[in-house]
Amino acid sequence: MSSYSCICGKVKVEYSGNPMFVAYCHCVECRKTCAAPYFHGSGFPKDNVKIVNGESTGSFAAKQMPRHFCKDCGTYVYGNAGEFYVLPCGLMDKPPAAQFHIWTSEKAIPVLPEDGLPRFEQGPK
């Protein structure tokens, strides 16, 4: 079992196993959520994730998925994509490598990194 927490430590996310996918997301919602030109996120089955002290999270409804944050420090701690959770790799001690870029049609920076990863204008098919 691996874990990470928000800045103040009130909310902890425990996860196990390998992610279903790891992506760099360039959608507007992810960029605004993480205040960066793109988001490094990993999708984990819900059975592999435990939210500790989840009552300390707030959420906001976004077009793509509800996003949950710590009510005290504001750290974005996970997204609820229905069948799986999206965990921010930036909070992990050993983040997994991204496998592809998604939502490049909404990118903020004019040139994407030359990393050789597949690129999808929306989500992968």
TrEMBL record:
A Pfam family it matches: GFA
Keyword vocabulary terms for this entry: Lyase, Metal-binding, Zinc
GO MF terms held by the record: carbon-sulfur lyase activity; metal ion binding
Record domain CENP-V/GFA: where: 1-121
InterPro entries registered for this protein in UniProt: CENP-V/GFA, Mss4-like_sf
Family the entry assigns: Belongs to the Gfa family.
Protein known as: CENP-V/GFA domain-containing protein
Biological source species: Guillardia theta (strain CCMP2712)
